[in-house]
Structure formats: structure tokens, C-alpha cells
From TrEMBL:
It comes from Tychaedon coryphoeus (Karoo scrub-robin). Keywords: Cell cycle, Cell division, Coiled coil, Cytoplasm, Cytoskeleton, Microtubule, Mitosis. One of its GO terms (biological process) is cell division. This is HAUS1 protein. It is found in: Cytoplasm, Cytoskeleton, Spindle. Belongs to the HAUS1 family. One of its GO terms (cellular component) is cytosol. Residues 117-169 form a coiled coil. The lineage of its organism: Eukaryota, Metazoa, Chordata, Craniata, Vertebrata. InterPro entries: HAUS1.
Length: 191
């Protein structure tokens, strides 16, 4: 199944090489199932869009017939300004995703979009506040890191100086120990 799916997916292009083992086949099988499920969802969505388009076209035809029969209006009898207004109305309805061009539908859609706009602005302000807080924390952390590096360097320098002093003391102690032994020997010889 996976091989057939890959061949179908890549069509005229050779299928890229992959290591055929149980794990890769399982992963590819899961991807295949997700892909096929997504394709089914897309097909359903396309069908729904086609149904809606047909419904809207039928409704448009219905209203055109009514306008022609009852008011004797057609696109040719309208002025350029009226046609531009109708086009604006249609584009607004499509943009706002309303079912019809009634004022109630427009007001509802605008209210919903305004509400979404306020939510988005609120969320953006919240995110900006979080960003400022994170920047402050990052700056503080970087400052702390710099200070810690400086402290580590100072400690290393002081440890090095202390090590040198300790080595000097050790050498002096060794020298004094040897000198003491030498003096003890000379005292015994002198006695």
C-alpha cells in the first residue's frame, strides 16, 4: 500500500530512496493515512463549495428575474455608479462571509469582526507585555552571566596567585627544612 501510495504521490518522478524497515514503513503508512484523510476532507470541502456556488448562482438568477420582471431593472439599465455600488455590496458580502446582503447580516458580521479585532489587539498587547518581560529577564540573565564570568576570572586569578604563593612557601619551607638539617649537622660537628 505504501509503495503504491508513494508512486501515485510522486507520479513521473522516481520515489526517493528510503531504508525499508518496519519502523519507516509504519511511519509512511501513518503519513499515508493522514494524507488520504486530508484528501477526503478537501474533496468534501470542494463539493460543499460547489454546492454553495450553485445555490448562490440560483439565488442570484432568482433575484435578477425578480428585478427584471417587477422593476424592469437590468445591468444595462443601471448607471455606472449604481453598478459600482452593487459590486461594492457584493464584494463586501463576500469579504464579510455573510449569507445575504441584509443590513442585519452586515451589522452582525461587522460586530463579529470588531470583536475579533479587539480580541486580537488585546492578545497582541498581552504578547507585547510578555515580550517586554522576557527581554528584561534576558537582559538581567545576560548581565548576571557577564558578572559571573568576571567573578570566575577574578577567582581564577586569585587562585593562581595563591598557588604561586603556596609554591613559594613550600619551596621556602623545604629550603628552611634543609637548612635546619644542615645546621643541626654543623652543630653536632661543632660539639
Amino acid at each position: 500500500q505504501v509503495t503504491l501510495w508513494l508512486r501515485k504521490l510522486y507520479q513521473n518522478v522516481p520515489v526517493p530512496w528510503y531504508e525499508v524497515n518496519e519502523r519507516t514503513v509504519d511511519i509512511l503508512y501513518e503519513i499515508m493515512e493522514c494524507n488520504e484523510e486530508r484528501d477526503r476532507d478537501v474533496m468534501l470541502l470542494i463539493e460543499d463549495m460547489k454546492d454553495r456556488a450553485a445555490k448562490y448562482e440560483a439565488e442570484a438568477d432568482y433575484w435578477q428575474d425578480i428585478l427584471r420582471e417587477s422593476l424592469d431593472l437590468s445591468e444595462l439599465s443601471l448607471s455606472q455608479e449604481a453598478l459600482a455600488d452593487f459590486n461594492d455590496l457584493v464584494e463586501s458580502a463576500l469579504e464579510l462571509e455573510v449569507d445575504d446582503t441584509s443590513l442585519t447580516s452586515f451589522y452582525s458580521a461587522i460586530t463579529c469582526m470588531t470583536s475579533e479585532l479587539h480580541k486580537t489587539r488585546s492578545k497582541n498587547q498581552e504578547m507585547e507585555l510578555q515580550l517586554k518581560t522576557l527581554r528584561k529577564k534576558l537582559t538581567a540573565a545576560l548581565t548576571m552571566e557577564k558578572k559571573l564570568k568576571e567573578d570566575v576570572e577574578k577567582i581564577k586569578e586569585s587562585q593562581e596567585a595563591e598557588r604561586i604563593r603556596a609554591e613559594t612557601r613550600s619551596k621556602n619551607l623545604t629550603f628552611l627544612g634543609l637548612k635546619t638539617e644542615d645546621l643541626k649537622i654543623k652543630i653536632k660537628e661543632a660539639e
